[in-house]
Amino acid sequence: MKQLTLPARVSALVLSALLLGGCSLFGDDDELLVKELVEFTPTITPKILWEADAGDGIDDHFSRLSPTVSGDVVIAADRVGRVSAFNRETGARQWQVDLRTLLGGNSGSFLGGGDNLRISGGLSSNNRHVVFGTERGLLVALKVSDGSLVWSTTVRGEILAAPAIADGKVVIKTAAGDVIGFAEASGEQVWSVATEVPALSLRGTSAPTIANGGALFGTGNGKLSVAVLDNGLQAWEARLAVPKGATELQRLSDSDSTPLVLGNFVYSIAFNGQLTAVELSTGRVVWAREYSSYQNLAIASGRIFVADVNDSVYGIELSGGIEQWSNTDLSGRRITAPAVINGNVVVGDEYGYLHFMNMATGRMTGRLEVGSDVYAAAIVAGDTLYVQTRDGTLLAVRI
Length: 399
Hints:
Largest sheet: 4 strands, antiparallel
Number of strands: 34
Oligomer: single chain
CATH topology of the domain at 40-60 and 298-399: Methylamine Dehydrogenase, Chain H
CATH superfamily of the domain at 40-60 and 298-399: YVTN repeat-like/Quinoprotein amine dehydrogenase
Radius of gyration: 20 Å
Low-confidence stretches: 1-30
CATH class of the domain at 40-60 and 298-399: Mainly Beta
Structural class: mainly beta
C-alpha cells in the first residue's frame, strides 16, 4: 500500500503533539508513516444531519474538549470561553453564554473581558448542570436549562479531563495529581486525594468515573484507583503498567483513559502498559492484555474497543480479553478514541474523516468527510453521533 511520510516529533517538550500522532516514542524510524485511505465497498451511508457554529474551536492546542448531551440539547464549548446549547434534532441554538463576560464581573475574578478562559476539561452533564474545567484551574457549573452560572471555584493545577458528575457530587482530577470531590449543588469542596505525579508524564489526565458509591480514576504512574465518593478514602488500587527503561521517557506509564464500569467489573488501559479488567468490589485483576493507549475505551455487545498508540483499532472479548479482530488501515492518521453506534465502531482522524468499522469483524463499512480535524471521540446519543471539530464546528451525524 502506498504511504505518505511526515516528519516525526521527538521532543519531550511536545509530548502531547507526538502522542496524539500515535508515533512510536522509542522506535528508530525518523519518519511517521501515514497510510493513505484504503478503497472498500461501503455497506452504510453516514450523513450529516446538521452542523452548527460552536465558537472558535481549540486552535492548535492539545485538548479533549468535547460536547455533552442532556435531554433534548447538545452542549458544546470553545477554548476561549463560549458555551452553547443546540436542539439535538434540528441544531437550532437554544442559548449561548460567554464565560469571559459572565465570570469577569465576579469579585476576585482573574478574567478580563478579552481573556482566554482556556476551557479544556469537559464537557460533562446531568439533567440539571453542565460542568467543565480550564487550564487555569477553574471549575465551572452552569444550568443546562439556560446557561446561567451556578457556581465556579479554582483549584491547584490544570483541569485537562472531563469532570464526573453523579450522585450529588462533581469529581475532577488535575494535572497536579489531585483528585477532588465537590458538592454538585454548591461547589463546596468535600474531599481531596493527592496522587503521585512522575517527573515526566503525558499531556492529559484520566477523567474520573462515578459508580457504585466510588470515584474511579487512573494515575500518572500506571495505576487504577477508587475513592469513596462521600469522603475520599481510597478503597483499593490496581496496577495497569509497570514503569520500565533507563530514562524517564521510556518509563512513561500514564493511565489517562476514563475507567469504564460494566456490572462488577471496571476496564482501563495505560500507556506502555496493559488493558485490564478489574473486579470493582475488590480491585482484583481478572485479566490483563498488553496494549498501549492513552485514549478512552468503548464497550458494546460483549466487546471492548481500543485505539492504540499506533492508530490501530482492536475488538476484544470482554469476558477473557481475547482479541477478536484488529484494523491497521488508519496508521499514522492520529485517530480519536472509538465510539459505537448501530453495530459500528467509529473513529475520527486529523485529516477530517470519520471512519466506520463493523463491530463484529473490524472491516470498514463507511467513511464520511467532515472538513476539519476530528480531535476528540464522537458522542453517541440514541441513533446520532455528535462530533466537534478543531475549527469549532459541531455536527450531528446519522447512519
